[in-house]
Each structure stands twice: as structure tokens, then as C-alpha cells.
Design brief:
Largest sheet: 4 strands, mixed
Distance between the termini: 42 Å
Strand order of the largest sheet: 3-4-6-5
Oligomer: single chain
Shape: rod-shaped
Number of helices: 4
């Protein structure tokens, strides 16, 4: 800790010790500098960045495609997969595709998506409410389980 000193004096101190003068905090008033080995400092910063990247959780969006006329067993399989995705901490995108005359019965698809949303309410919250985009209705659920 040298306190506030001039740049030329700081450079002289760094040169005498055989190290570098590194500006650590340029936005401070006055700027904060340290006398240290710059190569070693850069290496340590890189190590910290790599550790932070390893520890972060990457959230994927898994997609479950359904149709309005889905049968009971198929519905159960899709719900089981969606539940597993949410438990793993991923987001789930439900895509309901309407074909032909099914477009006239969008209320059936909306009711089905609302039913799915209610069944998965214990482990997922709605990030995007069911909405129609062209011939498909989309809903996204995010996991509430923290790992």
C-alpha cells in the first residue's frame, strides 16, 4: 500500500522490483494500480473465468409436440416426458399443431394446453401463456425446481 503517488514514481517502483505496473480499477478516482507479474495475473484471471463457466447451469428448451386429438396413452407419455424435462431443470415448449378442420376447434387445443399447465403446476410455471401463431399454438413452461 503506497497511497496516492505519481505515475512516474509508480513506474520506477515497478521497474526496480522487476515487475509490471497493472491498472486494476481504471474507473476509480484516483485509478487503482498494482505492482505485479502481469503474465501471472492474466493466467489467474483466465482460471477464474474457466471455473465460473464450469459452474454455470445451461438451460435447454425441450419441445413436446402434440395434436388436438391426442389419445389418453399418448398424452400420458408426453406428460411423463415433460415432467422429466422440468425436473432436470430445463424449459419445456409445448407445440400444438392444427391441421385442416382442426383450425375450427382451437378451443379444444387451448383447453388441452391449460390442462397440461395445471398438471405440471407443481414443478413448472408458465413463461409463455398458450398463444396461436399461424397453425400452431405454443406454450412454454419453466422449471421451478432449483438444482
Amino acid at each position: 500500500m503506497q497511497g496516492v503517488i505519481s505515475i512516474s514514481e509508480a513506474l520506477k517502483i515497478a521497474d526496480e522490483s522487476g515487475l509490471d505496473l497493472v491498472e486494476v480499477s481504471p474507473n476509480a478516482d484516483p485509478p487503482v494500480c498494482k505492482v505485479l507479474d502481469y503474465g501471472k495475473y492474466k493466467y489467474e484471471q483466465q482460471k477464474k473465468a474457466n471455473e465460473a463457466r464450469k459452474k454455470q447451469k445451461i438451460i435447454d428448451i425441450k419441445e413436446v409436440k402434440i395434436r388436438p386429438g391426442i389419445e389418453k396413452h399418448d398424452y400420458d407419455v408426453k406428460m411423463r416426458n415433460a415432467r422429466r424435462f422440468l425436473e432436470d431443470g430445463d424449459k419445456v415448449k409445448f407445440t400444438m399443431r392444427f391441421r385442416g378442420r382442426e383450425m375450427a376447434h382451437q378451443d379444444i387445443g387451448l383447453n388441452l394446453l391449460k390442462k397440461m399447465q395445471e398438471e405440471l403446476a407443481d414443478i413448472g410455471t408458465s413463461e409463455l401463456e398458450p398463444k396461436l401463431e399461424g397453425r400452431q399454438m405454443i406454450m412454454i413452461l419453466a422449471s421451478t425446481i432449483s438444482k
